[in-house]
Each structure stands twice: as C-alpha cells, then as structure tokens.
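**Paired protein data**
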Amino acid sequence: DHSFSMRDDLENMRRFASDISNAIVGLTSNYRLGYGSFVDKPMMPFVLTDAEKVLFPCMGCKLPYAFLNSLPLSDNAANFNATINADTISGNFDTPEGTLDAMVQAAVCKTQIGWRSNARRVLLVATDARSHVAGDGKVLGIIR
C-alpha cells in the first residue's frame, strides 16, 4: 500500500527489506523475489482528480495508480532491496485502498510478474486500511 498514510510504513519496509530477502534466501536457493505496490483506482472518488492533485497528490509523491509491478520475480535479492529503497509514496482520497485489485493483478498477470508454473506463490501484503470491495467501481461504471 503506497497511499500517503503508509509513508512511515514504507520507511519500515526499507529498513526490513534486507531482513526479508535474507530470511527467504536462508530457507532455499530456489526462490524468486519481486516487488509491486498499489494505491487505488486513479479516478474520482478514489483519488482527487482536479489538475493540481492529479499532478501533485502530495509533496514528493508520485502519481496515483491501481497497481505497479516495480520488480518482476527474480533471484536477485540485491535488486529487490534496491527497488524497495528507491520507491516513493503516492496519494489518494478515500480510506479504502485498491488492495484486492492489486492482488488479483499480481495473481493473474503470470508473464508480467514472472510466476513459475510449479512454484509456491506467496504475496506479502502490507496496508493500514481496509480494501475496496466488489462493486465499489460500479459508481464509475467499472463493471468488468
């Protein structure tokens, strides 16, 4: 979750990135690490859409997005750590986040994420808010 309320938690993720990767590397030599993030659907009422807020959702923030696959799965733990350390927060408007949308994207976009066919798939999700639920997009005409 890279909504603005997670800014302090991203700092914690940066501190713990190498602990996470070291723990996984310590368990097996047959691993892949990737990194993705989510904010929310980039449209009103989920994010502010006035011109200034679209370009600058918050000081030092990147533009809002639904899901971003920043690092496809690989066995390069150093790249995993560097990607997390370089990441920045975004901003949104409402309290529920696009958690479930992001999880679905990560699960079904096998080629883009880099899932191997016979691998155990694990998603580690960090958020401080509940997720939007099925049907929330109907208000915008998002029905598929």
